[in-house]
């Protein structure tokens, strides 16, 4: 197993390019199953979850080329299997995104239920409710979902709660259904809007993707596509926090300010100087940090995927910051590790109170989930002494060489063989 070793204290400086969006790439790769033939995707991030999606497409009989220079080739002409097996779904919940496309195009799918994960139960009841409303027969057996439909038909679906992949799965299913589908209370994330853009390039008729009301007129057939994927707003946000927390001066390039308004507003509230510059955003950290309260919300609110990163920034703030995690029931796994480094954090249910400023000292810590591991990297950047982060496969699932990017900005960070 690998670990990351960081010696804290460097002020980050320079410029860094953000990779393509993981959470856009995953549904877009799954959408290739809606057509037959060769699709080409550019600006695809080289990270674990994309490799897992590639393996899943391969299991279904599609051809998938390893991502080189950000380019992935998918050939779906030979898809002949329709099962997403447990061993892949358990490592990546987003595997469930093949469900809608397979039922829509092939009339069948057998997908392992995702089970829980580190940050919560994360069921897929909304995905299944929508497919059933579109005429699919849904059976649950042996931990798998069996979905069948001769041809899906359009329906009006109202989500009980905002679900990103639920919206994406049903948008894809609706693209080949007979008639009109309306999705109400749909997720508004930029990645949902991007998927709608790709589906329309394939010949679909999607309107309103990225708003809470999406309508899809089903068509008979979709075509393969060439598409360059949007930048990863969460990687961008993580890099912005890295610049602020180290009192650095960094230009984060290839990122879209309109995807980060809530994060930028909160960074400014803590005293950092943040402004658009060229094709990116420049952050200048200040010596003093002000406390700020956050409550995670669906887009355009403050993203849950930035909660852990923001928490470690708040350990530097003079005063008390209150964080409310409203999306997932267990997304504070990073707190015990931050406490071992000296942070003053009290968790009560879905609320965490951070008091500062506290000096963090280096320690051996363990990553538990993707964004928790990013938070520990940020903690290592400012901790006194050496921090060893174990189980960094969590980090590598969702970031494209984050350590390399930070090293290029002056951080003392390297990989080494780990014990665990
Ligand atoms: C997506 O997960 C992202 N993943 C997550 O990013 C992100 O944290 C999450 O949206 C929220 O923004 C991808 O896009 C691949 P949800 P998703 O369905 O779609 C409940 C990362 O770090 N729910 O929006 O799985 C669910 O339990 C990852 O990159 C149901 O109850 O999340 C959760 O509490 C982590 N039933 C809430 O809704 C359902 O059928 C939001 O979940 C679906 C969801």
Radius of gyration: 21 Å
Total helix count?
Answer: 14
Share of residues in strands: 25-35%
Bound molecules: ligand EPZ
CATH architecture of the largest domain: Alpha-beta prism
- Helix amount: 25-40%
Largest sheet: 4 strands, mixed
Report the structural category. Answer: alpha/beta
CATH homologous superfamily classification of the largest domain: Enolpyruvate transferase domain
Overall mean pLDDT: 96
Number of domains: 2
Strand count: 24
Shape: elongated
| Low-confidence spans | none
- In which order are the strands of the major sheet placed? 22-23-1-24
CATH class of the largest domain: Alpha Beta
- Termini separation comes to 6 Å
Describe the structure.
Helix content is 31%, strand content 25%. The chain is α/β, with parallel strands linked by helices. The chain has two domains: 2-19 and 231-417, Enolpyruvate transferase domain (UDP-n-acetylglucosamine1-carboxyvinyl-transferase, Chain); 22-217, Enolpyruvate transferase domain (UDP-n-acetylglucosamine1-carboxyvinyl-transferase, Chain). A hairpin with a 5-residue loop joins strand 12 (205-207) and strand 13 (213-217). The model has no long low-confidence stretch (mean pLDDT 96). It binds ligand EPZ. Residues 22-23, 26, 93-94, 120-127, 161, 163-166, 304-305, 327-328, 370-371, 398 line the site of ligand EPZ.
Notable traits:
four-stranded mixed sheet, 24 strands, alpha/beta, binds ligand EPZ, UDP-n-acetylglucosamine1-carboxyvinyl-transferase, Chain, elongated
């Amino acid at each position: 197993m690998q670990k990351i070793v960081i010696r804290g204290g460097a002020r980050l400086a320079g410029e860094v390019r953000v990779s393509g969006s993981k959470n856009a790439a995953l549904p877009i790769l799954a959408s290739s199953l809606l057509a037959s033939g060769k699709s080409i995707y550019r600006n695809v991030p080289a990270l674990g979850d994309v490799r897992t999606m590639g393996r899943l497409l391969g299991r279904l009989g599609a051809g998938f080329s390893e991502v080189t220079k950000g380019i992935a080739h998918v050939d779906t002409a030979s898809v002949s299997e329709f099962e997403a097996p447990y061993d892949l779904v358990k490592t990546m919940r987003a595997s469930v995104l093949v469900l809608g496309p397979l039922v829509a195009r092939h009339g069948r799918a057998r997908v392992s239920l995702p089970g829980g994960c580190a940050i919560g139960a994360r069921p897929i009841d909304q995905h299944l409710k929508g497919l059933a409303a579109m005429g699919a027969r849904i059976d649950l057996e042996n931990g798998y979902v069996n979905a069948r439909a001769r041809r899906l038909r359009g329906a009006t679906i109202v989500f009980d709660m905002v679900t990103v992949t639920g919206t994406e799965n049903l948008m894809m299913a609706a693209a080949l259904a007979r008639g009109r589908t309306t999705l109400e209370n749909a997720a508004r994330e930029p990645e949902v809007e991007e998927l709608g853009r790709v589906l329309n390039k394939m010949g679909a008729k999607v309107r309103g993707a990225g708003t809470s009301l999406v309508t899809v007129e089903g068509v008979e057939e979709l075509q393969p596509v060439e598409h360059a994927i949007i930048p990863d707003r969460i990687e961008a946000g993580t890099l912005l926090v890295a610049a602020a927390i180290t009192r650095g001066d960094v230009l984060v390039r290839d990122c879209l300010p309109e995807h980060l308004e809530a994060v930028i507003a909160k960074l400014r509230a803590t005293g950092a100087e943040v402004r658009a510059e060229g094709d990116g955003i420049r952050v200048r950290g200040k010596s003093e940090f002000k406390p700020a309260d956050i409550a995670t919300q669906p887009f355009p609110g403050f993203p849950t995927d930035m909660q852990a990163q923001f928490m470690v920034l708040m350990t530097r703030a003079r005063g008390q910051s209150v964080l409310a995690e409203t999306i997932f029931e267990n997304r504070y796994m990073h707190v015990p590790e931050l406490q071992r480094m000296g942070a003053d954090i009290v968790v009560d249910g879905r609320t965490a109170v951070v008091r500062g400023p506290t000096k963090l000292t280096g320690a051996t810590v363990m990553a538990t989930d993707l964004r928790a591991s990013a938070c520990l990297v940020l903690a290592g950047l400012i901790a006194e002494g050496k921090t060893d982060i174990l189980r960094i496969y969590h980090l590598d699932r969702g970031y494209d060489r984050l350590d390399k990017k930070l090293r290029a900005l002056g951080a003392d960070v390297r990989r080494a063989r780990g014990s665990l």
